[in-house]
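Lecture 7 notes. Example A: sequence first, then its structure tokens.
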Amino acid sequence: MTKNLNNKTSSVQGGEIYGDFTSSFDSDIRMYSEDIDVSIAYSNMLSKIGVLTLDETNLINSALEDIRNEIKNGTFKWDKKLEDIHLNIENSMYDKIGEVAGKLHFGRSRNDQVATDSRLYFIRKIDFLNTLIIDFLQELVKLSEKNISIMLPGYTHLQKGQPILISHNLMSYFSIISRDLRRFLNARNNLDNMPLGSGAFAGVTIPIDREYLASELGFSNISSNSIDGVSSRDHILDILYSCSSIMINLSRISEELIIWNSEEFDFVNIPDEFTTGSSIMPQKRNPDYLELIRGKTGHSLGQLVNLATSLKGLTFTYNRDLQEDRKGAMDSIEIVTQSLEVIKNLFSKISFNEEKMIDSANKSNILATDFADYLANKKIPYREAYKIIKDISLNLKGKYIHELSLDELRQFSKLFEKDALDISLRNSIENRNSTGGTSTNSVRNQIIEAKNFLKKNKNAK
């Protein structure tokens, strides 16, 4: 005879009038598969230590797999009165196999069960996310190699500063996103610590085999303190910080492309499928996808502050506030996943307007620093050289500094000689050959290092 849980859970759950307020159903349903995996592993462990017979374990595991398939196929009958997915699954097991279902919970609390489900869910999500980050990084390397020699003006304060290679700029994206990959790898490492076996918070009385459970579920470590195991959520803060960091960086990349895509710059061609038209202005091609990446960044930042604010006032062991720990991180990971897929595909199809970039660089005094360096190499103090070039820039009379003749340059300093006329965009770039600089050779070295990084981290966990 089966036993339905509807009539016996109200004393545990509290009043039903405000059931929706106390429910974690909508967020927990996303980790139904992890919940079932944890229960199957726990069932096998109970059999191993003699709490369940082999027949009972097989019966429980078969029911759990049936429930997994029903949820996956959309035929599972959810009862929101039961508040969360754990009780829904347990209730369904009672309907399928009767009293044996009740044996699964021996030695296990929903506190350590949910904490384990959550860690397992986020480990799997981060593993997938890290593959997307690596895919994007590989696209950046490929694009950098393809466009290794294209020059453009580099900017500070949105003012033209010095010439650089577009490949150097792309590798700056690689550099910052690679650090985000490291952040997610660190977050994963902190997640890889199984709390199952902590009970409600004080441990359990049965001879639970936690090492076996960790092996079954793929955890490398088990928590060393049962209170910390069920009550700490700093690993979710790690996730939210990592999500916030990469979204900030993707937003900055998006902003740069949005500016470069404007008519005033026209440095890049964003593929049509990543733009939308205007409802009234037929000529428009708006970079909406990039703008949405920029716009969605605030969500992760908000969720990070939200959870941090909740945690800072909690005592140890379990508090119901911790029910609010997961949804923000789940949503943030989804946003990061979508954003990475969009920007990776966009970068696989983007192209650069080389002539526009060079023309923009030539129509400026972007080589002023190189002229100052030229004079400083004549053994005068750099600040004196700087002042001479500043005086020149204030007296150009409609020309750019690189358009001046030798006679015109010598009006400001007799140190200028014929080789000063060799200063050019390409010359400026190739002279910046310091480690990490914008010269072709330096960028090639950055690409080599990037490939080594990707090779090392491709299967990293």
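Example B, a different protein, same format:
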Amino acid sequence: MQYVMENISHYFEVGGYVMPPLALCALLLWYALGYRISSMKRGGGQYSVRDLIDRYQANRWTPKRGIIEEAIQRGVELQRQQLPHLRAYLDDAFNDYSEALGKYSVLVRSIVVVSPLLGLLGTVSGMIETFDSLQNMALFTSDGGIAAGISQALFTTQLGLVIAIPGMLFGRFLDKRQQRIERDLNQIKDILCSTVKL
């Protein structure tokens, strides 16, 4: 444990003042991605929305395990009440799902954009330190001299990219999943509104 803590403190020293914001970005990014992954359970297996609605109406239903199954259950119950303007009630009932699906998506995109810029800021800071060492002819000092400046420049750039690239890939994957679930929710509304008994 002490070895791990020493390594972490070494990385913070090498990276300079840009390291705390980069570490915060990494923590926020993985928290947001974890939340989005856990909250985007579609449910229903490989069944289509129409099949899931038919199974629910025929009482061949398993307990709800995801957003789509829960939305079908809620939507069919509203349809059975024979409410006028069913679409408006469904829009209102499904609004919670839309908000939950989009939660933290802006945070993920922001961190993906900001992390490389913070890495670039560390690069500039490291290069300034390098050129200061060259100007003073301090090739090797107790602070590290040229090597410390170059190390800071490369390390912060690398860390900014290490944060941004997985964030971008996972973020795109989750955005696609969000779009699919939103399409399924719209399809539930369309099917339930088209089969209303007049």
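Note on Example B: Residues 130 and 179 are 47 Å apart (CA to CA). The two ends are 69 Å apart (CA to CA).
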